[in-house]
Design goal:
Strand content: 25-35%
Number of strands: 13
Order of helices and strands: HEHEHEEEHEEHEEHEEEE
Mean pLDDT: 97
Distance between the termini: 30 Å
Bound molecules: ribulose-5-phosphate
Number of helices: 6
Low-confidence stretches: none
Radius of gyration: 17 Å
Helix content: 25-40%
Length: about 220
């Protein structure tokens, strides 16, 4: 079974989870990436079962709208019961690295605002320690060089993601050489404290509540201890 099939399995499990949890007046946060794209396509046939969605990127908003699924601004939604999103790495504490698709800031805002955060991923995303996947850091453009120097002081090797401007008008540094990240919460805070950093792709202070991990044996449901 290839990675693509596993992503479909994860997306199908997320749809089932969503339909069990949400009802007609519920709002659903929807993440960004290829696994979420599949989830959105599956959600299309069930769009009348929820009140609407909040999108974590322009890309996701466009895909949702292309299926006629209502998309609302986060500011207009009182309560968002559930957020479904993918990840680049997942550790045993359900801490994540996200942002491979560049949508980390809006993703983190929605994860913070949602009552429950369900992460969907194929088994290749499971790691013992985070940090092999280069950690995305969204940066105000004029601060790029300053932030890069500060990240080097923290032991990372930042690489400017060329030709990418985020939905918020910023740039991304992908930070290599951080493996193994021992205390993800602390690194998340240190990076956030660098002036000019908008957000970083460590989801440790707000980890996932549940991970639906697609394996060759089927879905493994991981929950926070
Ligand atoms: C986008 C993300 C994605 O969730 C992450 O990159 C996983 O993507 P995919 O489902 O394509 O493997 O964080 O910013």
């Amino acid at each position: 079974m290839g990675q693509e099939t596993l992503k479909q399995t994860a997306a199908a499990a997320a749809l089932e989870y969503t339909l069990n949890k949400l009802d007609y007046d519920s709002y659903l946060g929807v993440g960004t990436g290829s696994t979420c794209d599949i989830f959105i396509d599956l959600l299309a046939s069930h769009k009348s079962k929820i009140a609407g969605t909040v999108a974590s990127s322009e890309r996701t908003a466009q895909r949702l709208r292309s299926h006629g699924i209502p998309v609302y601004e986060l500011n207009t939604v009182d309560e968002m019961q559930l957020y479904v999103d993918g990840a680049d790495e997942v550790n045993p504490h359900l801490e994540l690295i996200k942002g491979g698709g560049g949508a980390l800031t809006r993703e983190k805002i929605i994860a913070a605002a949602a009552s429950e955060f369900v992460c969907i991923a194929d088994d290749s995303k499971r790691v013992g320690h985070l940090g092999n996947f280069p950690l995305p850091v969204e940066v105000i453009p004029m601060a790029r060089s300053y932030v890069a120097k500060m990240i080097i002081k923290l032991g990372g090797e930042p690489v400017y993601r060329q030709n990418i401007i985020t939905d918020n008008g910023n740039v991304i540094l992908d930070v290599h050489k951080l493996y193994p990240i021992e205390v993800a919460r602390t690194l998340e805070e240190k990076l956030n404290n660098i002036t000019g950093v908008v957000c970083n792709g460590l989801f440790a202070n707000r980890p996932a509540d549940t991970v639906l991990l697609a394996t060759l044996q089927g879905i493994e449901t991981l929950t926070a201890n």
